Amino acid sequence: MTQYDRNLFKPAGNDPSAHVNACSGIDGPMPDLFHESLKAHDFAVLSNKNFSFADLYKSGTWQKYGYRAAALARNHPSRDPFIAYLANDQHQSWTGANSRQSYRSALVRLAARDVLELAPGYWRLVIAEADDDAARRQFIRQLEPHVDDETRARIRKVVQAPSPSDIKKLKRAVEFLIQVPPDPDHTAVRSGATGPDRQASKPRSATSKKEALYALNQHQRRKSKSHSGYNWRDQFWRVAVMPDSHLDNDRRACIAALMLTGCRPSELSADLGVGVSALEWAGLAHLAFKIAGAKLAEETGEVHGKGQERRDIEVRCQTPESEWLFAYVMEQDGGQCFLGMPAPTHSQNGMPLMPTERRRRVTGSLGKLIGRLGKVAFPRLQQRLTPYVFRHALSSDLRAMGGIWGKDDVAAALGHQSTRTQTHYGSTNTSRGLTGSRAEQVARISGIAPVRSPDRGPHPAALKPQTPKA
């Protein structure tokens, strides 16, 4: 007897009369699945290269993986997310490369979990039921290079034979991992599985927001020739937001804050929210915003530089949405209020939703709302208006102010901790020469953390005085 099969298996399930050989219900030869499971186990270990399962649970990402798998299963006749993914990949029916990437990441990690959990029991069963000692030793020799000490201990501790359903589950996960190997560094995950006559779907990126902003500014330039002072943001507020009978004032206030501060849509979730105070200085109406940042990486109670934990923006009320929001806030207790869109705390099956999932739902809800209102205000606009268009617009306005606001100020306004990130938002030339710039009413910008600048000066050696040659 070997170190792996000293203990006899208990029957699968609670029925003592159940047959020990749980593999009898599996189609195909046993050695094939054994060899494939070793290869899949290596892939499963590789998938944990950057983030462990514990990391995924802690961040709430694992719950999102479950939602994505369930969504794929619902939309396929087999109700199997792995088959649904492979079918979509074969027919290139993804809505975009980002969609394909998110589903691939989810299913690879789910398959890896199944392999890591079920493979030790299956290997134990194969070794225990080998025909003779020679075959048993052969299985062990093939197994040894693929497992570490922890996995060996798990194999030895298995005392109950896996059920046929467990082995079918393992077989399904093994087949998927072999067909779709993990790509933990995302070096090739965005390239679709395309044939020679197919093209990979184009990824959605910040370019689409910039194109929408460019189209809106071009629209404003054309309109201003016949309507002096025309501004697309004024048009959006007056034609779409204010007359909409389906909007309550709370959501109008959120849209106004989005237009004035360029905050991320997730920052308008009730988990974070935007605090607003109405102030009057020297007879002028002001709004002071306190925005809780969404792009943070929290570890052991400390915030590590993905973005500003909090930022303050103060504006003078000179535009339609700012004047309306000032009146709205003045009606609240103490002339201040908290803006945040609620999200469900539990899923339809009663599972609690992680904060990241609640914020994602607020982002989606606000995106659909802005898209619908954009079609009302600009029915001929080919690009889709999104919440991020206002974020790009504010960045463009601030950067086009001729040096009034520096790179550090723009970064703080956008909630960044580095001046490099703002290069992805808007363009200095996009808003140049246009009336109605929202940056003209910005009075103060500050962030809770100092902004880093990636720009480096000359090397110290280059600053040393040079000795003149004789």
UniProtKB/TrEMBL annotation:
* Listed CDD domains: DNA_BRE_C
Biological processes, Gene Ontology terms:
DNA integration; DNA recombination
Q: Which domain of life is it from?
A: Bacteria
Q: Where is the composition biased (Polar residues)?
A: 419-434
Q: Which UniProt keywords apply?
A: DNA recombination
| Region (Disordered) residue spans | 182-209, 419-470
Instruction: Extract one GO molecular function annotation from the record.
Output: DNA binding
Q: What is this protein called?
A: Site-specific integrase
Organism lineage: Bacteria, Pseudomonadati, Pseudomonadota, Alphaproteobacteria, Rhodobacterales
